[in-house]
Amino acid sequence: MSSHDTAASGTRSNNPQSADDISDQLESLKSDLQTVRSSISKAASRQVDATRENLEARIRQDPLMAVAIAAGVGFLYALIRR
User: Fold this and answer.
1) Burial 17-49 (b: 16+ CB within 10 A, else e)
2) Do residues 27 and 35 make contact, with C-beta atoms less than 8 angstroms apart?
3) Cβ pair 77, 69 in contact under 8 A
4) How far is CA 7 from CA 2, 15, 16, 17, 20, in A?
5) Which carries the bigger pLDDT value, residue 6 or residue 70?
6) How many CB atoms lie within 10 A of CB 59?
7) 66 Cβ partners below 8 Å, 6+ apart?
8) CB within 8 A of 59, min separation 6: which ones?
9) CA quadruple 58, 61, 65, 66: dihedral positive or negative?
10) Sorting pLDDT into bands at 50, 70 and 90, what band is 17?
């Protein structure tokens, strides 16, 4: 075993984490996860809004095509449900 290995293993055994340290780290991770969840939720909401606006604009541009597509999807759904 080299002196580097001995020093590294000695460092690990001399610095065990206490329950309070682990609890603090878990609370920090929990807070970080809530922040990430909030950011993802906001991004998803913006994407849904943008998609809805795009769909509404396309329906206004060609309403007959939108009706035809809706009828086709409804027909296919009825065939599958039989």
Assistant:
1) eeeeeeeeeeeeeeeeeeeeeeeeeeeeeeeee
2) no
3) no
4) 9, 12, 15, 18, 26
5) 70
6) 14
7) 58, 59
8) 66
9) positive
10) confident
Q: What's the whole-model pTM score?
A: 0.54
The DSSP string of 42-82 is HHHHHHHHHHHHHHHHHHHH-HHHHHHHHHHHHHHHHHHH-
Q: Are 35 and 28 in contact (CB under 8 A)?
A: no
pLDDT of residue 42: 97
Structure tokens given for 15: 């610095």
Quick one: which of 50, 53, 62 has its CA closest to 70? 62
